[in-house]
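Dear colleague,

Thank you for sharing your sequence with our group. We've completed the structure prediction you requested, and as agreed, I am returning the results in plain text so they can be pasted directly into your records. Please verify that the sequence below matches your submission; if there's any discrepancy, let me know and we will rerun it promptly.
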Amino acid sequence: LFRSEPMLSGSASTPPMGNDYIYEVKWDGIRALIALEDGVIRIRSRNQNDITKQFPELNIPAFRANCGLFDAEIVCLDKKGKPEFKKVINRLMSSGDSNIEKLSKTSPVYCYIFDCLYLDGRSLVNEPLLRRKEWLRDALKKETPYRTSEFVEDGQSLFVAAREHNLEGIMAKEKLSRYLPGKRSDAWLKVKVRNTRECVIIGYNAGKGNRSNAFGGLHIAEVENGKLVYRGKVGTGFTDAAIKDIFKMIKQLKETDKPVKDKVLDEKVSTWIEPKLFVEITFASFTPDKNFREPVFVRLRPDLEI
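Please find the predicted structure tokens below.
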């Protein structure tokens, strides 16, 4: 059980209504599984990487339990209590013990726990969600960087508030849903304020003009059931710094044959690379051939892997 993978959600454009659901803020941070074994805390990313040492401020006795497994989101918050994704990614990517220790004071993280899979000898994955939430609340001490992710029963109001406060979105979850490790289920639905998707860069074409030393556009694909699904090319939304950073990362990846069968724009002048670097893209809608219409780069997603 301690090697469990997190449950994954489906997507919806509006919050589903009805008494069968509860609703939570979708915290914009790093998804993590918190394992507690004989009082010792280990933190793993959704890709099973051990990231415990990145967050020393979370390595504290925060639980009224000896063993447990919890699903959570690690975030940095600004002065108004809003998540700052860039800061938490900086924490994830930082190195050097003294630097990590310093950042734990200057950019502290909080861990919002929203589910409990196992507690003191008992597997809870087949218990209904609301029951798991009760176990979680009882297991967590107060006044620590660990917090329970609060939920409400009015999804529409929460979604409106999320949009007004420029948050990422909300989660809608069936009250009776079981926890399905490593599986994607529509029992949980993410409802994003913006139409965004996580994509992997599979290629690029050379830039012109002020981008002549970098790329003009990036070929992107979504990963569905382990396969790459081509979504087109994105060339807007980048700051100069992002172009520089991404091009530097791209140049370190191996060149490959074209990894998708689709006919693509600028194919003859494109360079194809191994699909390792994830980005978040916003777009208006889908074209008839299932490419993104008006795609715009939002940010890098170094917390994701294939």
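Summary note from our side: The longest strand covers residues 109-119.

Kind regards,
the structure core
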